[in-house]
Amino acid sequence: MDDKISLIAQKIAEGGKNVVFTGAGISTESGIPDYRSKGGIWDKFQPVYFDEFMSSKKARIEYWWRKAELYPDLVKAKPNPAHMSIARLYEMGLIESVITQNIDGLHQEAGLPDEKVIELHGNTCRIRCMSCGKISSIHEAQNRIEAGDLAPECECGGYLKPDTISFGQAMPREEVERATELSRNCDFFMVVGSTLLVQPAALMPNYAIQHGAFLAIINLSETPFDKMCDVLIRGKAGEVLPKIVKCMC
Ligand code: NAD
């Protein structure tokens, strides 16, 4: 493992265009469950599709009820040593950008500037009106739910929804284009905590490989890219990433 960590540190230090790609696994050590591990979110809930959300009040109530169930974990969550290590590498001028599938905002809370975090699946702390587009906060929506408003609506009458990409909802065009461009032009691409199963996010490591980038994967379980990567570490992000940073200091 130590050799693999040194090799990753050496590649990061080479000063090329370094990109980090994160998934739900980087935030499990912050207390936010991932989707596909045992005990993850898909063991508890089935997804509500976007068209169901838009066409049925019952589906909206169901959707918001699940969000409310996850709310206590979300507000308690703080960046863990993996998020802090990535922020440290950025501060050292060694990371170009982070592409994330996560919706929890923990990279920004760890210190990365907003413009350096490409959120492919949106951000759950932001609430958007599906009619007028007005943005409000999750805390406001949660207060309304707790007061008995089970599927909150905007003053314009539109449905309020966390600003995340639901199944069946279009991906954010600008974010996908930026992530594609970065992945196609990077020299080093490091995956942290993702099954690499969700599309189109999982195309990004493919673009990096096609460009000849060095591919590192730090993940607890298998991914379809394990045989194609240059370094694979089956370890906890919060333990491995601080060791990489330590190697650079
Ligand atoms: P996933 O749930 O499919 O996979 C998570 C992966 O992380 C698994 O392979 C697991 O073995 C690994 N993992 C778990 N804990 C780890 C740790 N401490 N260190 C290293 N690896 C660890 O997640 P995904 O690939 O990101 O895709 C799921 C979708 O879920 C994404 O679209 C994302 O939007 C959403 N999601 C986000 C959050 C979040 O924002 N924190 C949480 C759950 C789901």
**Annotated CATH architecture of the largest domain:** 3-Layer(aba) Sandwich
| Low-pLDDT ranges | none
Total separate domains: 2
List the ligand species: nicotinamide-adenine-dinucleotide
Describe this protein's structure.
The chain is α/β, with parallel strands linked by helices. The chain folds into two domains: 1-32 and 79-121 and 171-249, TPP-binding domain (Rossmann fold); 33-76 and 122-164, SIR2/SIRT2 'Small Domain'. It is 39% helix and 16% strand. The protein is built from ten helices and nine strands. The chain has helices at residues 2-13, 41-44, 50-55, 57-76, 81-91, 106-109, 138-146, 173-184, 203-210, 237-248; strands spanning 18-22, 97-100, 117-119, 122-129, 135-137, 160-164, 188-192, 214-218, 231-233. A six-stranded parallel beta sheet has the order 3-2-1-7-8-9, sandwiched between helices. α9 (203-210) links the parallel β7 (188-192) and β8. α1 (2-13) packs across α10 and α8 (173-184) packs parallel to α9. The chain is elongated, with a radius of gyration of 19 Å. It starts with a helix and ends with a helix. The mean pLDDT is 94. Nicotinamide-adenine-dinucleotide (NAD) binds next to α10.
